[in-house]
Amino acid sequence: MKILFAFENALPSAQADAEVFMATAEALAPFTTQAWLHIPAPNAASLAAARLVRGVAMVSAWAPGRPAVLRHILCGLTIVCRRAFREADLVYTRNLWVAWISLIFGQRVAFDHYRPWPDQIPPLQRWLYSLFSHPRLIVNICHSDYTRQAYLRLGVDGAKLRRVLNGFEPQRLRNPVLPTEAKSHLGLDPTRKYVVYTGRVNHKKGLALVVRAAKMLPDLEFLLVGSSAEGPIEALARDVPNVRIIPFQQPDALVQYIYAADVLLIPPSREPLAQFGSTVLPLKVFFYLSAGRPILAGDTSDVREVLRHGENAWLCAPDQPEALVDGLMRLTEDAGLAARLAAAAQADSAALTWTARATRISSILTERLQAHRTAPAPWGRQQSMRWRQLSWRWLRHLRRTRFWILPPDELTDEPNG
Q1: Can you give the pTM of this predicted structure?
Q2: pLDDT digits (tens, 9 = 90+) for 115-148
Q3: Kindly report the CA angle at 307 between 176 and 196, in degrees rounded to 5?
Q4: Which residues are bridge partners to 57 per DSSP?
Q5: Domains held by the chain: number
Q6: Which one, of 239, 337, 243, 356, lies nearest residue 290 by Cα?
Q7: Which parts of the sequence belong to the Glycosyl transferase family domain (predicted)?
C-alpha cells in the first residue's frame, strides 16, 4: 500500500491538527510500502520539520506561508502535478479542497478529520454528500462517533464512516514523577493542591467558567498553561490571586505541569463544542488519560465516548460553576476517589496510542481499497428539505451572532415559520 499524505499547513506547528496528522502519518508509515508527505514548505525551518516525520518522504507543495486560503488552494493544485500523486494508491488528507481536487483527477482518497462539517455548516451539505459518496472516496476516518453521526444523518454510506479515536505518544510520559517532585521542580508550593489546564488559553475553551470557579475555591491553585498573548482570559484572571496564567510550554516542560497536577482539567463547558465547533473530543483527553492523575471534564456527548463518570474521570454538568466547584472539592479532598479514577484512566490509555490508531486505520484502508465501489444514491427529497431548513437556520444564526458554526441545539429545534 502506497500512501500520499497531504497536509495543508506549514511545519513546525504547535496546533493539535498538526500533531494528530503527523503522528498518524508517522505511525502509519510502517504499514506502507511507500509513503510521501505533501506539505507547503515556505522556508528552511518548515522543510526541516517535515523531514523529521520518520519513514515518510518529503514532497514540497508550491505554496506560500500566508494567507491560509491561498496556501490551501495551491496545495490542492500542486498535489495533482506530483509524481507521487500518480504512484500512490490513495491520498490521505484532512482538507476538503485537497480531497475534492484529488477525486477530480482520478485518485482515491481517505479523509481524516474531527469536525462534523454537515451539521456545523449546513449550506455545504449537498456538496459534502457528493464528495463523501464519491466511489473513490474510500473512507472517512471520524475522530468521534459524534462526528460520524453527522455524516450518517447526511445519508453517507455507513461502511465509509469509521470511528477511530485519537491517541497519545507514550514516550512523552516515560519518566513519571510524584506530584510533590514536579511541584518542587516548577517552584510551586508542594503543600498546595493544583488544578491544571493545558492547551490554548483563549475565550473559545470555556476558561471563563474556570476563572469563576477559582474565585469560589481560594484554597486551590489553578494553573492555565498555554498562553500566547494578552487576551480576555488573561484579563479575567489578572485580579484572581489563585489563578496563574502560564505561557506556552515545550513538550518536556509541559509534562512537568501535568505531573504537578492534583486534578487535570478539561473545562466543563459546552461553548467549545456548541458555539465555536473547534473542539470535539479534545486531543488532551488522551494525553491526560495516560498521566496517572484524576481528570475532571464536562458531561458532554463527545467526551462521554472516552471518559466515564465515576469510573475513569469525574464528569460534571456543563456551564455550571457550582457543579465544577463540587467536582474539584471531591477530587482534592477524597484521595481514594482520586487514586481510583487516575488508575482506571491510565489503564484505559494503553489501547489509545498513536500506534494503536495506525494499526486500526491500516486494516480499514486495506479493507476499503478492496471493497466493491458502487454509485451513490441520488440526493433525495427528504435530504433536500432538511438541507434547506438547516441552511436557513444557519443563515439566521450567522446574521444574529456572526458565528459560522451552527450550534447542536439548532439542529433539533423546530424550524421557525
Answers
A1: 0.92
A2: 999 999 999 999 999 999 999 999 999 999 999 9
A3: 45
A4: 36
A5: 2
A6: 356
A7: 183-346
